[in-house]
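Quick one: examine the sequence and fold tokens given here and explain what the tokens say about the fold. Here goes:
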Amino acid sequence: MAPPTDTALSVSEVNRRARLLLEQGIGELWVEGELSGVSRPASGHVYFTLKDSSAQLRCALFRTRVRFVAAPMRDGDRVRVRGRVSLFEPRGDYQLIAEAVQPAGEGELLLALERLKQRLAAEGVFANARPLPCPPRHLLVLTSPTGAAIRDVLAVLKARWPLARVTLIAVPVQGREAAPALIAALGLLNRQQALDPARDVVLITRGGGSLEDLWAFNDEHLARAIYHSRLPVMSAVGHEVDITLSDLAADVRAPTPSAAAEMLVPDRRDLLRRLAGLERQLLRCTQARLEREGQRLDHLRARLRHPGEVLTRKRQVLGELEGRLRRAMLMRLAAERRQLGHVQRRMDACHPRRRVEQAGERLARVRARLEQAMQRDVTRQRERLAGLARQLQAVSPLAVLGRGYAILQDDEGKVIRRAGDTQPGQALTARLGEGKLKVEVKRRLK
């Protein structure tokens, strides 16, 4: 369980919220059941319980509605009750506030009305929702001239908007002739609209009554006439819980005649209060704007200077900028000169003539080193050649030939090592220590 807080609700606030939830969430409904415990105290109200086989519902019928109940209410009677679910805040009792009580036998009539309502809704007869001008230039009221409805409407209009222009079209509002009369009057008003374009709203109204009293406003033809009307129509028939087909077909429905008048015109007292409030708000805004503009003017006046002072200050600023520019130019020139000297030295160091001279010096050094290396290499090679010559002389066959020996070779240069390798008459070459001889084999000796 959550701990108690400073925002805990009072019992009265809880009951008030519960009542609003019941009244707004469920709305008006019909309930059928058996009467029980019917009580009529001195206040004129009627209290009773409506029950069925498994549950019961406490109901209250206030004295303003008791006079519209034709049949007596007795315990055990089966009735249909129209009302709204509510809650009696002082005791927290859940109850049904009854608006009408009918014997259960009237259910067939209401069922037929419900079927007609569904058919007209499917055809779009209840789709009107044109906005009404507020206030209307010329209000046309269709109602009984002797009924309480016109008195309530005129009283509210006089209190709220005395400038309202109202025309009463007297028509019966109860009985068989009521629906045809209303249809004819509504058609005439639509045909006469071209003669007086200021006529802009039609109000169809009457006071409360029983279901039979209000039955003319459930006429199908009247609902269709309201739907096809070029003039916007407001319907205010009966009390808040009485909803007829005329109410549904109209552009706007009002719960009562007085409420219709309140919805049609503004309250001049509210407008006067609003105008006074707007006047005060305008004065405050004007005063605040004047104060802001005055402060802005003082600020601008403080910032305003004589042109001579402005020119002197600008001249000083110009002098400072000129000095800064000169110093910057001298510094930039010195930096550029240093950069130029650095580049010149780099160019001198990289001049082609200097590079040629350096290459010539380097070539002379390389040539001298090459000549020295060649001389040393020639000397070394000569010494090596002499040594190899001595070694070759020591093992050379020519040295053997120098001691008197000779080498015989045939025409192909093959050395003759045995006498058997020759033939008589064969020519041979004899290589001596110095020179060669051509010889011929005469014969072979063993």
The two ends are 150 Å apart (CA to CA). Residues 400-440 form one domain. Residues 419 and 444 are 6 Å apart (CA to CA). The chain has a mean pLDDT of 86.
